[in-house]
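Saturday, quiet lab. Running sequence design on the structure tokens for the scaffold JK sent over.
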């Protein structure tokens, strides 16, 4: 089959993969994806109460869990090697059953979950200094074509709407297509992300507090690289808002 025909077939298959779950979500009566109970949201309020815990003691910079009854607010890594971002808010740990839901959103295009995650983030205690602008971690064009949507951007839309903040999906782009971070050993992830991002319009972020939305934070290398790039272009503060944080590095 000629190359162009293969691309057309692939893109049709992609669209179908994206449209079918969306149609099912629109047509079927709302139910919680975890307990199956009736719910207008992809996650019902009792499942949110059961599985989302904002009150876990976390490092204020990278949101890694701190030992219980800890009197410090920073982890050892952030003290010895401060990252480029200034703070991270995480709604919960990347652990069952939330990890399955994140994968459902990403790989099965369950977009109502993005809305539910955005709402969960918006209900967290808000930072003292709110960002001036929200961005989502950008995907490479190749990854975007393969997936059909950027899950972080979908989460950011709801968060921006509920916090009444401006959001941009174009200020910053991913210029390097690399292997997925999750497929690499931890020590290779920083190198994999080097020079991965570029700012297209510095004017929009210069002297601004920027909030970055992401679905999962694991080592933090992706967010660190992005924050470094934003600060090179004049952002004064960078705060991450992530749905799920891995409990350990
Ligand atoms: Zn439920
Ligand atoms: Zn930390």
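Result came back. Writing it out in full:
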């Amino acid at each position: 089959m000629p190359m162009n025909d293969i691309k057309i077939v692939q893109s049709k298959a992609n669209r179908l993969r994206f449209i079918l779950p969306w149609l099912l979500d629109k047509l079927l009566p709302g139910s919680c994806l975890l307990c199956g109970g009736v719910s207008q949201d992809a996650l019902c309020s009792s499942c949110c109460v059961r599985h989302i815990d904002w009150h876990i003691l976390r490092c204020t910079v990278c949101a890694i869990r701190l030992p219980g009854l800890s009197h410090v607010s920073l982890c050892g890594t952030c003290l010895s090697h401060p990252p480029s971002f200034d703070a991270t808010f995480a709604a919960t740990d990347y652990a069952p059953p939330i990890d399955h839901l994140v994968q459902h959103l990403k790989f099965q295009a369950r977009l109502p979950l993005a809305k539910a995650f955005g709402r969960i983030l918006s209900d967290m205690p808000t930072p003292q200094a709110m960002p001036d602008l929200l961005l989502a971690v950008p995907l490479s064009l190749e990854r975007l074509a393969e997936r059909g949507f950027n899950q972080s951007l979908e989460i950011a839309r709801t968060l921006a709407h509920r916090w009444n903040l401006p959001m941009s999906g174009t200020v910053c782009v991913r210029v390097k297509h690399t292997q997925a971070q999750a497929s690499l050993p931890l020590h290779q992830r920083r190198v994999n992300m080097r020079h991965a991002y570029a700012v297209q319009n510095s004017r929009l972020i210069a002297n601004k507090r920027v909030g970055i939305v992401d679905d999962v934070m694991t080592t933090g290398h992706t967010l660190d690289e992005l924050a470094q790039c934003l600060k090179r272009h004049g952002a004064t503060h960078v705060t991450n808002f992530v749905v799920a944080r891995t409990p350990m590095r």
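Notes for JK: The first strand starts at residue 87 and ends at 93. The CA atoms of residues 176 and 196 lie 5 Å apart. Ask whether to fix the surface positions before the next round.
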